[in-house]
Each structure stands twice: as C-alpha cells, then as structure tokens.
Amino acid sequence: REYLLSEPYLLAYLSLKECIADPDLAFIRGIIEPLIILRKNDSIDSTNSIILVDGLCEAEYHRPDHGYTITSFLVRHVPKMPTWLKVVATIRSRFIE
C-alpha cells in the first residue's frame, strides 16, 4: 500500500477508467510490476506469494456482455506471472455444475 501511495502513476493504472480501457495493462503495470519491484527490494517475503480470489463463481452473476470474465482474465495472465506468485481461486461447491 505504501509503495502504491508513494508512486502516483501506479494508482493511475488502477483507476476504474484505466481498468476498463485496458485491463491487461492495468493488471501488469498496477499489480504485477509493483509486486516484482517489492520482491527485488526485499519488501515482501522471498518465498511464494498468493493472490486469493474467493467466490469466483459469484462473479458469473455479473458477467460482462463483452470482454473478459474474471476467470478468463486470470487464465490469460497466470502464465505471464512470476513463478513465485501463485493464484488461488475458490468456488462454492453448489456451483460446480
């Protein structure tokens, strides 16, 4: 949080306007790259880090008419993430079908 607040250009990438205009760039520049910098500076643990997405199935109720769903967005970006950054996503078992 402190790093994001100290670098205003990063907050610009995470604005709603930028996230809608270019979600890929917003995710890479606003989340992934800052995490990589924090890791290089030893500001975060040197072991694996986790991005947790809870209730992924609930996002299907808010599925957009165009563009990515949260699931397709993550599938697109996980292969590009650093190997030390893991994504854990949960779904409610009643939504497995």
UniProtKB/TrEMBL annotation:
This is Rols. It comes from Neptis soma. The lineage of its organism: Eukaryota, Metazoa, Ecdysozoa, Arthropoda, Hexapoda.
